[in-house]
Amino acid sequence: MRLCAKSGTPTPVWDDLWCIGHPPQTGQNQSFEETMKTVRERLEAAMAEGKDVWTAGGADEAQIQALERSLEVRLPPSYRQFLASTGALNLNGIEVAGIMDGDAMDLSGGSAFGETMRARDEFALPPTLLVVQPDGDAPHCIDLASADSSGEMAVVCFQLNTKSAQTVAQDFEHWLRAWVLPADAPEA
To answer: 124-172: per-residue pLDDT in tens?
Structure first.
């Protein structure tokens, strides 16, 4: 169980509809480097247990800039750091789209560019959204039009059937901690 940040009520992590619009409380004082250290530790532990996990490997600055040029936007600093250190990943069944195999324009699954282009073509995903967690009903996306003064951008859950978006995290770092690395997440 996690606590809803707004209401304080316990909510089960396995319920896809838990606490809509109220991100869970997690270690909000972690630095992004600590968050990425936790990602690496979780990946190593899952691999040691023989689970199906993978990373794409860090992307170089040229590939990150190529993705930015294709989207005509500067990506948020936390997502840029994630791309540089990890590229993309799948951890215990949770996929985080990014740059695959050093190719920012890759159209395959797991590629932020490919997942976004597919969602735009098939579901009319707005051009201001970048898919970071693919889903056939409600992908999580960076809202490229929501930059704050530091360049960070909100992460939204976009309901493909209703074409509506709900903010799920103030930025990619908070999303990564709340949705990908919850301390009590059920194991896949």
So the answer is: 999 999 999 999 999 999 999 999 999 999 999 999 999 999 999 999 9
DSSP class per residue in 30-62: --HHHHHHHHHHHHHHHHHTT---EE--PPPHH
Q: How far apart are CA 144 and CA 169, in angstroms?
A: 13
Residue 76: band (very low, low, confident or very high) from pLDDT cuts 50, 70, 90? very high
Helix (H, G, I), strand (E, B) or coil at 158: strand
Q: Which long-range contacts (CB under 8 A, 24 or more apart) does 81-87 make?
A: 81/32, 81/36, 82/36, 82/172, 82/176, 83/58, 83/59, 84/58, 84/59, 84/60, 85/36, 85/58, 86/36, 86/39, 86/55, 86/56, 86/57, 86/58, 87/55, 87/56, 87/57, 87/58, 87/59
Short-list 152, 57, 37, CA closest to 101: 57
pTM: 0.79
CA 4 – CA 86 distance, rounded (Å) = 29
Q: What is the mean pLDDT of residues 89-94?
A: 87
Q: What is the CA radius of gyration of the chain?
A: 16
* Count of CA atoms in the C-beta half-sphere (13 A) of 79: 32
| 106-111 own/partner pairs: CB under 8 Å, 24+ apart | 109/134, 110/56
